[in-house]
Amino acid sequence: MEKLGHDPGIDSHSPGRSGDATSVANTLDTLSAIDSAITSYVFTEQGRATDSNIPIKEEHEDQVGVVKSLKCQVDPKAELGGFFPNLQRAIILDDVDTLTRHQSTGAGVLGEFVEIMSATTTSIPLARIESIKTLKEKTNTPKTIIGVVGATGHGKSSLINALLEEENLVPTSCFRACTAVVTEISFNFSNDSTHPYTAEIEFIAAEDWSCELGHIFQDLATSSAGISSVKSVKDPDAAIAWAKVQAVYPELKQVDLRNFDAKTLANDPNIKVLLGTTKTVQGRTAKELYRGIRRYIDSKGKSNFGDSEGKQGPTTQKMEFWPLIKVVRIYTKADILSSGAVFVDLPRTVDSNPARAAVAGKYIEKCDAIWVTSTITRAVDDQAAQELLGAKFKRQLQLDGNYFNITFICTKTDDINYSEAVNSLGLDSEQEVFDDAKHNLSSWEAISKLEKLKKRKESITMFIEEINKHICRYEKLRNDRAHGKSITPPKEYPKKSNICAHVSKLSKRRKVNSNEGSQDTQWISAEDHWKDFEAGMPKFSEDQSLEEEDTQLMIEYLISQKGKAIKAREDVQHDIDCDENHREALEEEVWDREQEFKLACISKRNDCSRYTIRDQFALGLKELDQQEAEDNDPENFDPENEIRDYAEIGRSLPVFCVSSQAYRSLALNESVDGFTNMEDTEIPQLRAHAKMLTEAARIRSAKSFLNDFMQSLNSLYLWSSGRNMEHCITADDKQSEMEYITEKINELKKRLGVANGDLGPQLNEILGYLFRHIEIAADNAAQRAPGVAHTWPSRSRGDGGLPCRSYQAVLRREGEWSGTHGPRDFNGDLAAPLLQKIGKTWEITFTKRIPEYLDRHAKACQLHQEIIQTLVTSHLQSKAAFNSVVRMLREQDKARISGLTAKIKSVISDIQASQRKAHRCFAVGIQRKLIPKYKECSLDKGPGVFARIRTILEDEIEGNGRAIFRASYGQPKKILSGMVDDIQKDLQNFMDLMADVMISDYRAVILGVESYDDTKIVRERVFELLKEVDKRFQ
C-alpha cells in the first residue's frame, strides 16, 4: 500500500546505520536518567502548589527544554509538520473565521469516513465508527450568553431589535409580561426555510400558579377591606394582586372571590390546559411571529379594581396570559446570533412569581457577559453607574467572576436638548460656527433680488404669451387674405392691463445708477415694455382694409419683439440661477454646520458619559475592595493603598452610546439630525463587540475539535496503512514489543493517576482556606443580622421600612417579594455581610489560585506524557521495522499532549459554574432555617399582629443567628467539594480513555490489523481519503 506523506528524510533511520542506532540507545539512557529527576521535582512542586505565588522554577523549565531537545535529536525531522502539515498549521491559528471554516471542513471529512466505514457492519468495530460520529457532534457552535439588564423603558428591547436588524421582533415594555419575563433570543439553526422565525412560550407549572394564587388570596384577605370588598381597597399591593387574578379570570367578579379558593381557580380547565406546557409559534416574517407572540403576552393593563361606586366593570374581555408565562424564547436567523451569541432580556426587578424569579436567576448565573443599559439622559448623571450597578449587583458580579465581563450601553442618544448641551458641555465655539452660517444666509436674504427677478421673469413670460396670441391673430388674417378675403385689424389686443396689474409693485421705472451693476438695466416695468412695444408697432386704423403685406409687416415686427423678450427672459433666468446657486450654497453650508454642531453635541455628551461611567465603575470596585479590606483588618486598613490599577480597569470598560431609532431611520435612507452615517449610532460597533465576545469560546471549541480531529486522522492512518511485517519482525518479537509498549503506557496511566489523585487534595486545600474564611465571615454576619432585620419593618414614617401588609407579603413568600415598595429579599439582606466579607477571598480563589494551580498541574501532566511517549517512540525508533511510522506516532503523541492540556484547562468552566451556584446558596441556606418562623408569622393575625411578628422574627435571628449562618454555608461547601470530586472523575475517565486509545494505536502498528476482505477494502478507501484530506486545510 502506498505510504502517506512519504518523506525521504525518514529513510535515514534505516537499520543499516549503526551510528543512528547507537545514538538512539544513548538517548534512551539519558531520558531515563532525566525522568527520575523530573518526576521527583514535579511531585515536590505539586506538593507546594497551594501557594499561588510560587512560580514554575527555572530549573523546571530547563528540564522541559532538555526533554524537547532530546526528542528533536531522536527525530531530526520533528519540525517538518508531520503527515497533515496544513491541518497542524490550522490548529495553531487564532483567527476565529479561519478556524471555524476548518472546523466545518473537518466535520465534512468525518462524515465521509462514517459513510465509508458504515459500508460494512461485520468487521469494522462499532466503537471506531461511534467515536467518529461523537467527534462530528462537537462542531456545534458554542453559546455565549449575554444578559441585557436595565430599567423598563430604557430601550433594551429596541436595542436588541436594532442589533437583530428587525423593526419589532422582541416584545417591548408596552407588554406587561415583558417587564417580568425573561426573553431569550438565539440563532435558529433549523433548516426549515419556510419558518425562519420561531418562538417558544413556556408557562409556569400548575403547582407554581396554585402557590402564587394562595399568596394572592392572602394578600387580598389582609388588605384594608378584606377579600369580600376588594373593589374598594386602596392598598396598591392588593391592587396588583387583584390585577393578576382579573387578567387570568376576566369573568370572575370581585364580590365572588370569597366563594373560591386558590386550588379551585388553579384547576380551572381553561387554565390547567396551559400550565406546564410550551407553546410554539412560527412565522415566515418577523411581523408574523410578532403577531403570534402578542396573543400571549399582550396586556391592556385595564382593571376594574377600585371602583368607588361599586359598579361591576365589563366581563366580556378576553383572558390574558401574561401572569402565567415563565419564559419566552425566540429563534431567528439574525447574523449577529450566527456566531453563538444569545441575548437574554432580563427583568430589572425581582418577580413576585417564584418560578419566573428562579428562571431569571438561573440565566444571570449562566451569563458569560452582562450588558447594563440606561438612557443617556441618566448616564450623564454622576451617580448613574452606581445606581444601575448597585451594591448587591456589584457583589454578585464579583462572586460570579463577571465583574470584568460588563459592557455599559447608553441608549437613546438622539434624545438631546442642544441648547442645554452647549451650556453644559462647553460647545460655544461649535455653536458660533453654526450661528455664523445662519447669519450669512439671513444677511444675503435681506439684500437678495431673487424674488423680484422671479416676478420679472413671470411678467416677461406673460408678455411673450400675449405676443404669441397676437402673432396667431395676424397669421390667420394673412391666411384669409391669401384666400381672397377682405380683412381688417383684429378687434382683440394684447392684455396689457392684466400684465401690468400682475406686476403692479414693479410698475415704476428705476433710475439707472452708474455705480450699480448692469443688472439694473433689467429693472424696466411691464408698462415700459408696452410703451416700447406700441411705439414701434405698425399703425392701422380700426376699419382699415389690410393687404397681405400689412399682415406680414406686423408679424415680422411681433416676432422681433418676441425675440427681444425671450433674450430678456434668458438674462433674467441667468441672474435667477446665479442667485439660487448662491442661496443653495449658503443653505447647504447652514445644513452642514448644523449637522456638525448637532453631531458635536451628541459626540461630546457620549464622550462625557463614557468617562463618567468608566470612572464610577472603577470607583465602585475600589469601594468593594476597600470595604472588605477594612472589615478584615481595620487596624491596618490604608485607603491610600490601591489593591488594583483602578484607572486601567475604568479605561478597559466597554461603553457604547447608541441610538436604535436613528439607526433604523438611517437604514431606511432617512436623514436624522446629528447622525451622518450608521457608525454615528454605534449600533454597528456594538454588533461587532457582540461577535467579539463569542470569539474566545469559538476559538477554544474549534481548536479542541481540530486537535481531536488530528488524533482521529492519525489513528485512522495507523489503522488503514498497516502493513504485513512478518518478513521484518517475528511474532514473538511483536508480542515482546507490545508488552513493552503496554507496560510503558500503563506506567503513564499510573503517573497521571497519581497526579490526578493529588489534584483533589490540592484543590481542597485551596478551598479549605476559603472555607475557614467563610466560617469567620458567618460568625461576623450573625452578629450583624439583628441590626439588618430591624430595618425591615417600618417603625416611623419615611424610615424606608415596610408597612404591615407588605411585611406580611414578604413573610408569606419565605422572605422574597416584589411589590409597590420595590423588591425585597430578607434572606439576601442577611447574607450580604457574609458575602461582603468573603468577596475578595472568593474572587482570588476562583480567578487566581485555582486557575494557577490547574496550569501547573497541566504542565506536570504534560511532562509525564512527554517522558513516557518519548521513551516509547525512541524505543521503536531503534527497530528498523517501525522507522516509517515513528514520526506519525510522535505527531499523535503531540496531539494527545495538547488534548489533555486543553481538557485540564477546560474544567475552569465547570469550576465557574459551581462557583456561581455555590455563592447563591448562602441566602438559600438562611431561608431554609427561617422558613418555620416565616410560616408562623404569616399565619398570625389580629390586633397587635405587626408588633408580634416582627418581634418573633427578630428574636429568632438574634437568638439563633449563629446556627442560622453556620447552616448557610453547608450547601456551598458541599457543592464545591463535590465539584472537586467530579473534576477528578472526569479527568481520570479522560486519561483512561486516552491510554486505551494509545494502546490501540500502537497495537495497530506493532501487531497489525485483521485482514478480512471487506475490512481491507474499507481500509484502502479510508487511506485514499486520508491522502488528500490535508489539501482541504490550505
Strand adjacency order, main sheet: 4-3-5-2-6-1-7-8-9
Coarse structural class = mainly alpha
How would you state the average pLDDT, rounded?
81
Low-confidence blocks of residues: 1-28, 30-34, 37-64, 69-80, 301-316, 503-524
| C-alpha termini separation | 26 Å
How many β-strand stretches? 11
Shape category: extended
The largest sheet, given as strand count, sense and whether it forms a barrel, is: 9 strands, mixed
Helicity, as a percent range: 55-70%
Number of helical stretches of at least 4 residues:
33
Please compute the radius of gyration using only Cα atoms.
Answer: 43 Å
Percent strand: 5-15%
Description of the structure:
With 1034 residues, this protein is mainly alpha-helical. 63% of the residues lie in helices and 6% in strands. It contains 33 helices and 11 strands. Helix 1 packs antiparallel against helix 2 (58-74) and helix 18 (450-482) packs antiparallel against helix 19 (496-502). The model is unreliable at 1-28, 30-34, 37-64, 69-80, 301-316 and 503-524 (pLDDT under 50).
